[in-house]
Amino acid sequence: MPRTLLLAGALAASVVAVSAREVDHATVAAIRDEGLHRSQVMELAGWLGDVYGPRLTGSPTIEEAGRWAMRQLREWGVANVRDERFPFGAGWSLERFHAQMIEPGVMPIIGHPQAWTSSTPGRVTADVVRVDIRSEADFDAYRGKLRGVIVLPQPARPVRMLEGNLVLRMDDALLAEAAGPPPRAAVRRPAPARVPAGALERFFLEEGVAAVLDRGSDAFMVNAAPSGSRLAWPAQRTDGGTIFLGRGGPWDERAGDVAPSATIAVEHYNRMVRLLERGLPVRVEIDIRTRFHPEDGQLNGFNILGEIPGSDLRDEVVMLGAHFDSTHAATGATDNAGGTAAMMEALRILQAVGAAPRRTIRIALWGAEEQGLIGSRDYVCRHLADRRTLAPGAEYEKLSAYYNLDNGPGRIRGIWLQGNDAVAPIFEPWIEDLADLGVSTLGRRSTRGTDHVSFDEVGLPAFQFMQDRLEYNSRTHHSNMDFMDRIQPEDLTQMAVVAAVFAYNTAMLDERLPRKATPAGGRQPARPCTQEGQ
Question: Considering the entire predicted model, what is its pTM?
Answer without folding.
Answer: 0.90
